[in-house]
Amino acid sequence: MTKRVLFVNVTFPPQSRGGASRVIEDNIDCMMQDDRYDACGVFCTLVGSNMPGRHETWLRGSVPVFAAACPWRDDMERLVRRDDMLEPFLQFLDRVRPDLVHFHCIQRMGLELVDAVKARGIPMVLTMHDGWWVADNLFIIDDDLRPALYDYHAQRPAHARRRMHALSAAIANFDRVLTVSRKFRDILLSTGICDTIGVNENGVSPLAVLPRSASDTVRILYMGGIDKRKGFHFLRAAILKAQLSNTHITVIDHARREGFSRGGKWGTTDIETIGYVPTAQVAALYAGADVVVVPSLWPESFNLISREASQAGCWVLASSLGAAGDHIEPGVNGDIFDTSETGPLIALLRAMDSNPDRFEKPRPPVALRPVADQYQELRDIYDAVIDGG
Fold first, then answer.
1. How far apart are CA 267 and CA 118, in angstroms?
2. Model confidence pLDDT, tens digit, residues 67-90
């Protein structure tokens, strides 16, 4: 008998730009080929709407998506309770009647949703993609870029005790808690939020690898947005110090509209800033790049960009923090650099700038975990949860 699964995530395409929603899309695609499970719906927020009570619905294939308005509130990313999301969620829950609910990123949405599913006795799975459960900030570093994890054993920091109590009580209601890489699991477990966290590592969808255009410069692509936690300012500082003459940088500013473009220079290095790039155009973006840099200053839980870039034949420069560079073989398909100072990245940039011919041919594609393997593992987890295992 087919079992019905409801997915819950803060955003969902076409209004989202995050990795978690891409993962859910891939899982849904696999599920549509599976006669054991059926994606009965997706519940998310309606991005950009501050009108209380407003919602929109659409179909993703045959799967209904319910997006509820999430009016802005102070410190909204840290809130654990917001009762205005509960009623629309209950309406959708009654409509789709799932056999299992899979929660992903639920910041801005409130723990009331978890309570409602628990009250109805519906099995629940949680996948943690970021630091919402274990830190004040999603990226688990503070404004000074220092690690700022909770300590659930000692109940520190003191200012977060009420939030920690609510989160630890809620997480105990899940039948299974997962995350997307072993490195991130170890970080989460170190906080003491719960005793057991499984790993369901993300798969990577096949990417259309387009012919690479020719260039006499090293073309570096940065896709993390204008965010210091993603390493934007770190990268800029490194390039200014490196004084590159055979390099061109393309920066994606996700806050800019699609089609936006502006040229400039960082020291001696040409730079172009462009706006949001839809998923359908990402393959062409990689085809116009030789190197993709992921200079994150937070320990990435997975990072789809670094893996897609490798799949497209780009050389990848990745921060040594987190799981962004787990698939990289240094000197073969990329390099991993320490981010405690800019020196290691500067050295890599200068070496590339002095030998642009090195990138005339794309790197051999890297074998990555396919989405189908991730889904099969997830399917087994669903089986165990529904069967009470």
1. 56
2. 999 998 888 999 999 989 999 999
pLDDT tens across 215-226, in order?
889 999 999 999
What the block records as the tokens of 347 is: 């050295």
- Residue 108's Cβ-count burial label (10 Å; 0-12, 13-18, 19+) is buried
Tell me how far apart the 2 most distant CA atoms of the chain are, in Å. 64
Beta bridge partners of 249: 220, 271
Strand, helix or coil for residue 380: helix
> What span, in angstroms and rounded, lies between the C-alpha atoms of 184 and 31?
26
Tell me what pLDDT residue 14 has: 86
DSSP state of 14: T
Task: Give the pairing of strands 55-60 and 63-69.
Answer: antiparallel
Supply the pLDDT for residue 15.
82
Work out the burial of residue 180: count CB atoms within 10 Å of its CB; fewer than 13 is exposed, 13-18 middle, 19 or more buried: buried
Which single residue is written with the structure tokens 């570096």? 220
Q: Are strands 3-8 and 269-274 parallel, antiparallel or unpaired?
A: unpaired
pLDDT tens digits, one per residue of 332-359: 999 999 999 999 999 999 999 999 988 8
Tokens of 49: 């709407």
What 128-131 contacts at long range (C-beta under 8 Å, 24+ apart), as own/partner pairs, is 128/177, 128/178, 128/179, 128/180, 128/184, 128/188, 128/197, 128/301, 129/19, 129/20, 129/23, 129/104, 129/105, 129/179, 129/180, 129/301, 129/302, 130/105, 130/301, 131/298
CB 84 within 8 A of CB 60: no
Which tokens go with 314?
A: 């780009």
**How confident is the model at residue 109, as a pLDDT?**
94
* 60 — pLDDT class (breaks 50, 70, 90): very high
Are 69 and 46 in contact, with CB atoms under 8 Å apart?
yes
Q: What is the amino acid identity at position 330?
A: P
Looking only at the bridges linking them, the beta strands covering 315-319 and 291-294 are: parallel
The percentage of the chain sitting over the pLDDT mark of 90, rounded to a whole number, equals: 84
